[in-house]
């Protein structure tokens, strides 16, 4: 169950030489795109944090869809975290 609000996605991804594939992540009606980063090896991971924006309340489906493929594979993903953005109070 998702509470309404602003969300971000953290993707832990790895890619051998030849990064550059374009990937879309879709949650409900929202789509965020990113370019896969070359990490030197598919098991060497980095974290990408992407802003997905406003999500509605309720259950959501997350899809990962490649748009382009630059090499023999697109990437390895170790984990994906979807979290509500925290608002810094001043």
CATH architecture: Sandwich
Count of DSSP E strands?
6
CATH class annotation: Mainly Beta
Uncertain segments are: none
Strand order of the largest sheet: 4-1-6
Following the backbone from N to C, one meets helices and strands in this order, namely EEEEEE
Radius of gyration over all CA atoms, rounded: 14 Å
CATH superfamily: Galactose-binding domain-like
Query: How many helices does DSSP assign?
Result: 0
Helix content: under 10%
Distance between the termini: 30 Å
Name the overall outline. Answer: elongated
Biggest β-sheet: count, sense, barrel? 3 strands, antiparallel
* CATH fold field value: Jelly Rolls
Number of domains: 1
Mean pLDDT: 92
Question: What class, by secondary structure content?
Answer: mainly beta
What proportion of the residues form beta strands (DSSP E)? over 45%
Structure in words:
This protein has 90 residues and is an all-beta fold. The protein has one domain: Galactose-binding domain-like (Jelly Rolls, Sandwich), CATH 2.60.120.260. It has no helices and 6 strands. The chain has a 3-stranded antiparallel β-sheet, with no helix packed on it. A 3-stranded antiparallel β-sheet has the order 3-2-5, with no helix packed on it.
Q: What attributes does this structure have?
A:
Jelly Rolls, 90 residues, three-stranded antiparallel sheet, 58% strand, mainly beta
């Amino acid at each position: 169950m998702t509470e309404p609000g602003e969300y971000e996605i953290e993707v832990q991804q790895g890619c051998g030489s030849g990064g550059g594939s374009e990937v879309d992540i879709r949650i409900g009606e929202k789509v965020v795109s990113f370019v896969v980063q070359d990490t030197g090896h598919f098991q060497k991971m980095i974290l990408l944090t992407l802003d997905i924006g406003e999500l509605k309340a309720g259950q959501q489906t997350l899809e990962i869809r490649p748009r382009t493929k630059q090499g023999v594979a697109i990437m390895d993903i170790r984990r994906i975290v979807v979290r509500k953005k925290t608002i810094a109070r001043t």
